[in-house]
């Protein structure tokens, strides 16, 4: 099985008030191609920090992170930005859409920064159709419900055909009905595109539907459960 993500002896420390706070402690994990993995744990356990490191949004204190066998801890800012654009899609709790643009325009935006720009419209339309948003494609996103906006954000994260989709509390701002719709959308993504999906969540319903769960407490992995696909 191919590893999409591998971390080796990963630490994150931050200087706080004259001493160093250890936020992540010796994280060793692998995530394999096509998996759906939940990262779970109490608030403040380091889930978002870990996701930010895996996605190359933040720098490690020590250790290594391999994305598709590339050590991202050694990359220049320019190469890291390129790798992020090409290989990683991000979905956040707050959808971060541009409210005055249509769903399709939001989805097409990241394509502006990709070397393979052609076909943006066709791919954007296909993604929105896949996520059952064909009828909302030309609505400005401020008019859409939370669940619809999060599905637009998922489509946007997939426009550059990333190997990896990273979602931080994707249902954190949604009611139970919208949560179920967004969970379905993530499964749809995996089955139709084969994208590896990592979801940070403290929603047990969402976590239990994933192939594996990696549990953090106080910055350490305390448990991994589930089966490799
Ligand atoms: N920039 C920062 N400055 C100070 N403390 C931080 C910073 N980022 C994270 N932390 C602390 O690190 C810990 C882990 O945070 P986080 O990764 O956001 O946890 P989670 O996503 O699991 O709730 C928390 O105790 C948080 O307060
Ligand atoms: Mg968090």
Overview of the molecule:
The chain is an alpha/beta fold and 229 residues long. It has one domain: 3-Layer(aba) Sandwich (Rossmann fold). It has seven helices and ten strands. It has helices at 47-54, 77-87, 103-108, 120-130, 146-157, 176-193, 204-208, and strands at 3-16, 19-32, 36-40, 62-67, 70-71, 88-92, 164-168, 196-200, 212-217, 220-226. The strands form two sheets. The chain has a six-stranded mixed beta sheet with strand order 6-7-8-3-9-10, with helices on both faces. Strands 2-1-4-5 form a four-stranded antiparallel beta sheet, covered by helices on one side. Helix 5 (146-157) runs parallel beside helix 6 (176-193). The termini are close together. The model has no long low-confidence stretch (mean pLDDT 93). The protein binds adenosine-5'-diphosphate and magnesium ion.
Architecture (CATH level 2) name = 3-Layer(aba) Sandwich
State the CATH class.
Alpha Beta
Which molecules other than protein and nucleic acid are bound? adenosine-5'-diphosphate, magnesium ion
The strands making up the biggest β-sheet line up spatially as: 6-7-8-3-9-10
Shape: globular
Helix percentage range: 25-40%
Question: What's the Cα radius of gyration?
Answer: 17 Å
Give the helix tally. 7
Q: Let me know the largest β-sheet.
A: 6 strands, mixed
- Give the number of domains: 1
| Fourth CATH level, the homologous superfamily | P-loop containing nucleotide triphosphate hydrolases
The end-to-end span amounts to 9 Å
| Percentage of β-strand residues | 25-35%
Mean pLDDT: 93
Going by helix content, strand content and strand pairing, the class is alpha/beta
The third-level CATH topology is Rossmann fold
Low-confidence stretches: none
The count of DSSP E runs of length 2 or more, i.e. the number of strands, is: 10
Order of helices and strands: EEEHEEHEHHHEHEHEE
């Amino acid at each position: 099985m191919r590893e999409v993500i591998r971390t080796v002896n990963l630490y994150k420390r931050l200087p706080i008030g004259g001493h160093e706070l250890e936020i992540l402690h010796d994280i060793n994990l692998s995530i394999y191609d096509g998996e759906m993995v939940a990262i779970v744990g109490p608030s403040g356990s380091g889930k978002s920090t870990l996701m930010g490191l895996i996605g190359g949004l933040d720098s490690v204190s020590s250790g290594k992170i391999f994305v598709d066998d590339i050590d991202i801890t050694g990359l220049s800012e320019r190469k890291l930005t390129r790798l992020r654009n090409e290989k990683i899609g991000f979905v956040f709790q707050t959808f971060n859409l541009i409210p005055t643009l249509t769903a399709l325009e939001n989805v097409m935006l990241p394509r502006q920064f990709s070397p393979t720009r052609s076909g943006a419209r066709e791919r954007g339309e296909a993604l929105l159709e896949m996520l059952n948003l064909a009828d909302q494609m030309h609505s400005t996103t401020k008019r859409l419900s939370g669940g619809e906006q999060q599905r637009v954000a998922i489509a946007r994260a997939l426009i550059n055909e990333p190997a990896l989709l990273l979602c931080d509390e994707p249902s954190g701002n949604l009611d139970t009905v919208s949560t179920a719709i967004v969970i379905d959308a993530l499964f749809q993504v995996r089955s139709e595109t084969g994208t590896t999906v990592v979801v940070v969540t403290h929603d047990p319903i969402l976590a239990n539907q994933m192939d594996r769960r990696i549990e953090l407490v106080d910055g350490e992995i305390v448990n991994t459960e589930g089966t490799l696909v």
